[in-house]
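Researcher: Here's a chain I'd like modeled. Treat it as a single chain, no partners, no ligands.
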Amino acid sequence: MRKALSIAAVLLMTIAAVYFSSCTNETALQSNSNEDSIKQVVARGEYLANHVAGCMDCHSKRDFTKYAGPVIPGSEGGGGLLFGPKFGLPGMIYGKNITPDAATGIGAWTDDDILRAMTQGINKKGDTLFPIMPYPNFNRMAKTDLLSIIAYIRTLKPISNAVPARQIFVPIAAVYPGKFLQPTVDSNMAPPASDVVKYGGYLAMVADCGTCHSPLTPQGPDHTRMFAGGYIFDLGSNKVTSANITPDSTGIGNWSEERFMNKFITYRDSSQINRDPGNQNTIMPLSLYAGMKDEDLKAIYAYLRTVQPISNVVEKFPK
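Model: Modeled as a single isolated chain. Structure tokens:
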């Protein structure tokens, strides 16, 4: 029987690969306690899950009476958010409960089970996940970052919430991108943060910017026009179209780094989120992305300056 990874092994591998990789002497290694090391691993996972990879905005309940639909406190990881035809999807798909609740969440899952779901789109029962879960992206994510996220979600408060089963109108085999997936993520590594453009591309991939910021077709997002915007989301109170974020004049070609940064850091002020936006709301979880580190936002900006410019005038709030 294949031995499942234990949390201790996850933490050990992550600590060894990430946090001590830059240490050059034995004294430096010995000076870090196991407790501090575990905290660093979980902190990395918390940062990625909340502010980059989007785990919490899809797997929690969100309050769309407020700007950008912030996560409802206490619902973190509990699932239940509906993604349906109003978002252009062929069915009714719900964010799963990823808290450690044994009965309704993933408390009975091994780390291998979680890693397989995150990177292969196959759950503990062997069922195929609909690829609104960005496992094709996570399949190329650094294994150390994946394991950090797993370590973090193990710390979430267990929530008893049986999420409804999905109802999809197409065969799951028709949308499963299996042939594009690597069979293992063991050799995946993130680019060094010093390579700003490559690291920004890595973060944009982890954040799945390309899906929401690409035009939607009957076959899914048009990745031949990636980042050109045009995906329309129906929030009920209003419709909103994703922006063109290519370096074209119809996108962010004329944006300075400061303007790009302000698009996010403005929402570190809770008053900008805790307000009724009326018919000017957005699906983009700015309350979470606002917590991204300045240097990571700058890296994404640097990367987006290098992608193919695509002319596409977007009407932000279509009727």
